[in-house]
Amino acid sequence: MGNDIDRAGVAKAYARWAPIYDLVFGKVFDSGRRSTIAVADAIGGRVLDVGVGTGLSLSDYSRTTRLCGVDISEPMLRRAQERVRTLQLSNVDMLGVMDAKNLAFADGFFDAVVAQYVITAVPDPEATLDDFVRVLKPGGELILVNHIGAESGPRKLFELAFSPIARRLGWRPEFPWERLSNWAARHGGVTLAERRPMPPLGHFSLIRFRKS
Ligand SMILES: C[S@@+](CC[C@H](N)C(=O)[O-])C[C@H]1O[C@@H](n2cnc3c(N)ncnc32)[C@H](O)[C@@H]1O
Protein backbone atom coordinates (compact mmCIF):
# COMPACT_ATOMS: atom_id res chain seq x y z
CA MET A 1 0.00 0.00 0.00
CA GLY A 2 1.27 3.47 -0.84
CA ASN A 3 0.91 6.82 0.88
CA ASP A 4 -2.84 6.89 0.38
CA ILE A 5 -3.49 9.25 3.30
CA ASP A 6 -2.00 12.70 3.21
CA ARG A 7 -0.79 14.38 6.36
CA ALA A 8 -2.00 17.89 5.54
CA GLY A 9 -5.48 16.50 4.79
CA VAL A 10 -5.54 14.69 8.14
CA ALA A 11 -4.41 17.83 10.00
CA LYS A 12 -7.18 19.80 8.26
CA ALA A 13 -9.78 17.16 9.11
CA TYR A 14 -8.79 17.21 12.80
CA ALA A 15 -8.87 21.01 12.90
CA ARG A 16 -12.57 20.63 12.03
CA TRP A 17 -13.08 17.79 14.52
CA ALA A 18 -11.38 19.54 17.44
CA PRO A 19 -14.42 21.43 18.84
CA ILE A 20 -16.66 18.32 18.90
CA TYR A 21 -14.12 15.50 19.17
CA ASP A 22 -14.67 14.78 22.88
CA LEU A 23 -18.43 14.63 22.44
CA VAL A 24 -18.29 12.21 19.50
CA PHE A 25 -15.31 10.03 20.43
CA GLY A 26 -14.98 10.46 24.19
CA LYS A 27 -17.02 7.42 25.16
CA VAL A 28 -16.52 5.23 22.06
CA PHE A 29 -12.77 5.00 22.56
CA ASP A 30 -12.75 5.09 26.35
CA SER A 31 -12.30 1.42 27.18
CA GLY A 32 -9.32 1.10 24.81
CA ARG A 33 -7.78 4.25 26.22
CA ARG A 34 -8.05 3.07 29.82
CA SER A 35 -6.57 -0.38 29.08
CA THR A 36 -3.64 1.16 27.23
CA ILE A 37 -2.95 3.54 30.08
CA ALA A 38 -3.07 0.74 32.66
CA VAL A 39 -0.28 -1.03 30.72
CA ALA A 40 1.75 2.19 30.37
CA ASP A 41 1.39 3.03 34.07
CA ALA A 42 2.55 -0.45 35.04
CA ILE A 43 5.77 0.29 33.10
CA GLY A 44 5.93 3.85 34.47
CA GLY A 45 8.84 6.23 34.00
CA ARG A 46 8.73 8.40 30.89
CA VAL A 47 5.83 7.87 28.49
CA LEU A 48 5.18 9.42 25.07
CA ASP A 49 1.53 9.67 24.00
CA VAL A 50 1.59 10.12 20.20
CA GLY A 51 -1.51 11.60 18.54
CA VAL A 52 -2.58 12.75 21.99
CA GLY A 53 -5.39 14.79 20.38
CA THR A 54 -7.51 16.75 22.83
CA GLY A 55 -5.76 15.03 25.72
CA LEU A 56 -8.71 12.86 26.76
CA SER A 57 -6.25 10.25 28.04
CA LEU A 58 -3.99 12.55 30.04
CA SER A 59 -5.84 12.63 33.36
CA ASP A 60 -6.16 8.82 33.40
CA TYR A 61 -2.41 8.26 33.71
CA SER A 62 -0.93 7.90 37.18
CA ARG A 63 0.48 11.21 38.44
CA THR A 64 3.81 9.42 38.89
CA THR A 65 4.09 8.70 35.15
CA ARG A 66 5.96 11.53 33.36
CA LEU A 67 4.19 12.38 30.11
CA CYS A 68 5.01 13.98 26.78
CA GLY A 69 2.22 14.35 24.23
CA VAL A 70 2.53 15.17 20.52
CA ASP A 71 0.05 15.64 17.69
CA ILE A 72 -0.02 16.96 14.13
CA SER A 73 -3.10 19.10 14.81
CA GLU A 74 -2.61 22.35 16.67
CA PRO A 75 -6.35 22.89 17.35
CA MET A 76 -6.56 19.44 18.96
CA LEU A 77 -3.45 20.18 21.05
CA ARG A 78 -4.86 23.51 22.22
CA ARG A 79 -7.67 21.57 23.87
CA ALA A 80 -5.15 19.23 25.46
CA GLN A 81 -3.27 22.25 26.81
CA GLU A 82 -6.46 23.64 28.33
CA ARG A 83 -7.04 20.27 29.96
CA VAL A 84 -3.56 20.19 31.48
CA ARG A 85 -4.11 23.67 32.90
CA THR A 86 -7.62 23.07 34.21
CA LEU A 87 -6.85 19.70 35.76
CA GLN A 88 -3.40 20.81 36.95
CA LEU A 89 -1.68 17.78 35.44
CA SER A 90 1.79 18.50 36.73
CA ASN A 91 3.11 15.16 35.41
CA VAL A 92 2.72 16.41 31.79
CA ASP A 93 6.21 17.63 30.87
CA MET A 94 5.40 18.86 27.36
CA LEU A 95 2.79 18.96 24.61
CA GLY A 96 3.86 19.87 21.09
CA VAL A 97 3.03 19.81 17.41
CA MET A 98 5.03 17.01 15.84
CA ASP A 99 4.70 14.47 13.08
CA ALA A 100 4.56 10.94 14.49
CA LYS A 101 7.09 9.83 11.86
CA ASN A 102 9.72 12.43 12.77
CA LEU A 103 9.80 12.58 16.53
CA ALA A 104 12.13 15.24 17.92
CA PHE A 105 13.34 13.06 20.79
CA ALA A 106 16.64 11.31 21.36
CA ASP A 107 17.00 7.57 20.77
CA GLY A 108 16.00 5.49 23.78
CA PHE A 109 14.36 8.39 25.64
CA PHE A 110 11.05 6.73 26.65
CA ASP A 111 10.03 3.72 28.72
CA ALA A 112 6.80 3.41 26.73
CA VAL A 113 5.25 4.91 23.60
CA VAL A 114 1.46 4.95 23.47
CA ALA A 115 -0.54 5.53 20.28
CA GLN A 116 -4.29 5.40 20.68
CA TYR A 117 -6.34 5.33 17.45
CA VAL A 118 -3.47 6.84 15.48
CA ILE A 119 -1.43 4.29 13.54
CA THR A 120 -4.04 3.74 10.81
CA ALA A 121 -4.35 7.53 10.32
CA VAL A 122 -0.74 8.24 9.35
CA PRO A 123 0.51 8.21 5.73
CA ASP A 124 3.32 5.73 6.39
CA PRO A 125 2.53 3.45 9.33
CA GLU A 126 5.69 1.33 9.01
CA ALA A 127 8.12 4.28 9.05
CA THR A 128 6.10 5.79 11.90
CA LEU A 129 6.38 2.59 13.93
CA ASP A 130 10.15 2.58 13.24
CA ASP A 131 10.42 6.02 14.81
CA PHE A 132 8.33 4.93 17.83
CA VAL A 133 10.80 2.11 18.43
CA ARG A 134 13.79 4.41 17.93
CA VAL A 135 12.73 6.64 20.86
CA LEU A 136 12.10 3.62 23.14
CA LYS A 137 14.64 2.29 25.61
CA PRO A 138 15.68 -1.34 25.14
CA GLY A 139 13.01 -3.38 26.97
CA GLY A 140 10.52 -0.51 26.56
CA GLU A 141 7.07 -1.05 25.11
CA LEU A 142 5.11 0.25 22.19
CA ILE A 143 1.42 0.15 23.16
CA LEU A 144 -1.14 0.61 20.41
CA VAL A 145 -4.89 0.56 20.47
CA ASN A 146 -6.60 0.62 17.12
CA HIS A 147 -9.22 -0.71 14.85
CA ILE A 148 -7.80 -3.68 12.94
CA GLY A 149 -9.67 -4.73 9.79
CA ALA A 150 -11.73 -7.94 9.80
CA GLU A 151 -10.08 -10.85 7.99
CA SER A 152 -13.35 -12.08 6.41
CA GLY A 153 -17.16 -12.00 6.67
CA PRO A 154 -19.71 -9.17 6.60
CA ARG A 155 -17.59 -6.82 8.73
CA LYS A 156 -14.86 -6.97 6.06
CA LEU A 157 -17.38 -6.11 3.29
CA PHE A 158 -18.70 -3.20 5.33
CA GLU A 159 -15.19 -1.91 5.99
CA LEU A 160 -14.32 -1.99 2.27
CA ALA A 161 -17.52 -0.11 1.37
CA PHE A 162 -16.95 2.48 4.12
CA SER A 163 -13.30 2.96 3.23
CA PRO A 164 -13.54 5.98 0.80
CA ILE A 165 -15.46 8.07 3.35
CA ALA A 166 -13.23 6.98 6.22
CA ARG A 167 -10.14 7.92 4.25
CA ARG A 168 -11.29 11.55 4.28
CA LEU A 169 -11.13 11.36 8.07
CA GLY A 170 -7.68 9.87 7.79
CA TRP A 171 -8.82 6.36 8.70
CA ARG A 172 -8.22 3.06 6.98
CA PRO A 173 -11.01 0.76 8.22
CA GLU A 174 -9.62 -2.17 6.27
CA PHE A 175 -6.13 -1.90 7.88
CA PRO A 176 -5.03 -5.56 8.13
CA TRP A 177 -3.19 -7.20 11.02
CA GLU A 178 -0.55 -8.44 8.55
CA ARG A 179 0.62 -4.90 8.08
CA LEU A 180 1.75 -4.83 11.73
CA SER A 181 3.06 -8.39 11.85
CA ASN A 182 5.04 -7.90 8.61
CA TRP A 183 6.46 -4.65 9.95
CA ALA A 184 7.60 -6.39 13.17
CA ALA A 185 9.21 -9.23 11.20
CA ARG A 186 11.05 -6.77 8.94
CA HIS A 187 12.11 -4.53 11.82
CA GLY A 188 13.68 -7.39 13.71
CA GLY A 189 14.14 -5.44 16.95
CA VAL A 190 10.70 -5.97 18.50
CA THR A 191 8.64 -8.90 19.75
CA LEU A 192 4.87 -9.07 20.04
CA ALA A 193 4.03 -9.07 23.76
CA GLU A 194 0.21 -9.05 23.49
CA ARG A 195 -2.70 -8.75 21.10
CA ARG A 196 -5.95 -8.28 23.03
CA PRO A 197 -9.41 -7.78 21.47
CA MET A 198 -11.22 -4.78 22.88
CA PRO A 199 -14.91 -3.90 23.07
CA PRO A 200 -17.22 -3.41 21.29
CA LEU A 201 -17.14 -6.98 19.91
CA GLY A 202 -13.38 -7.09 19.48
CA HIS A 203 -13.67 -4.36 16.89
CA PHE A 204 -10.56 -2.73 18.35
CA SER A 205 -7.32 -4.32 19.53
CA LEU A 206 -4.73 -3.50 22.13
CA ILE A 207 -1.32 -4.44 20.75
CA ARG A 208 1.99 -4.40 22.60
CA PHE A 209 5.45 -4.74 21.07
CA ARG A 210 8.55 -4.93 23.27
CA LYS A 211 11.86 -3.51 22.08
CA SER A 212 14.62 -6.12 22.27
C1 LIG B 1 -8.64 9.40 16.28
S1 LIG B 1 -7.67 10.69 16.97
C2 LIG B 1 -7.13 9.96 18.51
C3 LIG B 1 -6.80 11.00 19.55
C4 LIG B 1 -6.47 10.46 20.95
N1 LIG B 1 -5.34 9.56 20.91
C5 LIG B 1 -7.67 9.79 21.55
O1 LIG B 1 -7.60 8.62 21.92
O2 LIG B 1 -8.71 10.44 21.68
C6 LIG B 1 -6.18 10.63 16.00
C7 LIG B 1 -5.18 11.71 16.37
O3 LIG B 1 -3.97 11.47 15.65
C8 LIG B 1 -3.46 12.71 15.20
N2 LIG B 1 -2.59 12.46 14.05
C9 LIG B 1 -2.96 12.08 12.81
N3 LIG B 1 -1.87 11.97 12.01
C10 LIG B 1 -0.80 12.31 12.78
C11 LIG B 1 0.61 12.40 12.51
N4 LIG B 1 1.12 12.12 11.31
N5 LIG B 1 1.42 12.77 13.53
C12 LIG B 1 0.92 13.06 14.78
N6 LIG B 1 -0.40 12.99 15.07
C13 LIG B 1 -1.25 12.63 14.08
C14 LIG B 1 -4.71 13.52 14.86
O4 LIG B 1 -4.47 14.90 14.76
C15 LIG B 1 -5.64 13.12 16.00
O5 LIG B 1 -5.52 13.98 17.10
Automatic annotation (TrEMBL):
Boundaries of every Methyltransferase type domain copy: 48-144
GO BP annotations, alphabetical order: methylation
Domain of life the protein comes from: Bacteria
Keyword terms, alphabetized: Methyltransferase, Transferase
Keyword Protein biosynthesis: no
Coiled coil regions, renumbered to chain: none
Pfam family, one: Methyltransf_11
Database matches in InterPro entries: Methyltransf_11, SAM-dependent_MTases_sf
Molecular function GO labels: S-adenosylmethionine-dependent methyltransferase activity
The protein, known as: Phosphatidylethanolamine N-methyltransferase /phosphatidyl-N-methylethanolamine N-methyltransferase
